[in-house]
Write a structure and sequence with these properties.
Length: 602
Amino acid sequence: MVTSPDSAASTGLLSEVRTLFSRRSRVALALALITSVVLTSWSMGQWFAAQATDTVHRRADVSAALHAASLQSDLEKFRTLPFVLAQDPDVRSALAGVDRAPALNQKLESLASEVRAAVVYLLDANGVTLAASNWREETSFVGQNYGFRPYFRRAMADGYAELYALGTVSGEPGLYLARRVNRPGGGAGVIVVKVVFDAIEAQWANGDESAFVTDERGVVLITSEPEWRFQTLAPIPPEEIPALRESRQYGADATLAPLAPPDEHRFLAISAPVSSGDWRLHLLAPLRPTVSDAKVAGQVIGALATLLLWGAGIALYSLRRRAERERARQEAARRELELRVAERTSALETANTQLLHEMDERRRAESNVHLMQDELVQANKLAVLGQISAGVAHEINQPVTAIRAYVDNAADFIQRGETSEATENLGIVAALTERIGAITNELRSFSRKAASNPQSLRVVDAIDGALLLVSARTRARGVAIERRLEDENIKVVADRMRLEQVIVNLLQNALDALADIAKPRILVQVSVDEGMALLTIADNGPGLSDAVMAALFQPFVTTKDQGLGLGLVISRDICAEFGGVLCAARSELGGAAFVISIPVGS
Ligand code: ADP
């Protein structure tokens, strides 16, 4: 099925109406629609009809004025004719008894045809026709007596008469214009011009309107509708009718019946006076189809305009409702969003509080870890001290024993008076006490429990301190210490004692590994690579087995009977503290190698 855009639009509107309004509202709406359409259609029809009637009225007024003017001009033209003819010498001669009939006949004939008068004729004082323009015709007036005709009598009496009447011979209606012709010697005649209005009537009949002229009695004389002739506007009193018939003015058969009044729905009747007489021109202008068409057009326009307004109104209402629904939807969405945001905010706040709490916990835990780490570092230090204390004691005992010997010798030298030798011995004693002081100082510093305090220091100083602490062991084991320093002044930022602790740990491990090695060697190497100071402690021990390598740097991994498995773990943590790392490698000496890499300090 093909649907036109119009029907699609109306279907859309109907379904829109169905969704917008309830059933009851729709019924009320339909009633209101029908009522408004009917009312608007009716009033627009009336208004259009009134406008069209006005237009018809104006046109009819103009038309009536034109009709009256053309009739008037004809009448004026003919009225002058009897007057002019009354002055004519031939007419006067004829009335004086001179037989001028043939010439006058011809004159009147040519005059009548020229001015289009029906007949022009001259009557003597008795009413006998002396000459006539129709002298050639069978119905010639010549010789006829018209003394009985009222126009003759009135003209003879008053000098001039006008009468519309039927011709007694021709039976043709016309206007008789009669003028008395005076003669100096007395006596007179009457010159008559009969005018017929066929041409005007034919012209009027061609128009849309019906036009007619009535005389003072309201009898129709000239008319575009021949059947209306001699009917009347208003009934003529019956007692007057016989006299009128007698006068033969309207003919013996004139009905003189009143005209049927015009249907005012179909015709607009107007009238206007004609010239100076009592004649009136009447015009019936048809209201159809102009007014009826306008009325229908008005009704259709009214109905369409109302429907259009309703359509537009419903469309607007629908748009507004949609906009309201959309607004409500957006409002609901906004509220929903706000709710979600509020929920989310509160969840976030809770999470935040929790996070802050957790951060506190973590901070506490971290500080605990730090504390524990410090404790661990200290524990490791004490363990290392335990390991090296015997060696250190030995290291101190040796100079003490030597001091004893030198002091004894010095005493002998003094007794013998060999003071210079004694002085030399005491100098050696002083140097040895300095050595003891250095060892005990180192030991005291190493064992002190202090918080990490990183400072710029020469790597070599830390190495020397550590080597001093393990010197007894290295010497006892006969380990060859090889120092390979790229530069004595390589510096790092670290806590001196902690860095020393790491080095002591690594040296101790190396010494442990070298226990059964025939020619034990330890290489201490310092170099710089890409801003990192690299401190390598390598040995020629058995090296790291794959199993140990896999678990290296894990707490409690040890291969030693008395071992704790914490030395490397703590050492790595200490390096991390300085922004560095500790890792294991294979040594060029054949054993294990451990490399500390710490950023170079200024
Ligand atoms: P501990 O010395 O108490 O065992 P460490 O963490 O210092 O703990 O060392 C862990 C293990 O790593 C040692 O038991 C040892 O097996 C191995 N190791 C460490 N250094 C060396 C080394 N230089 N040569 C061979 N093995 C080593």
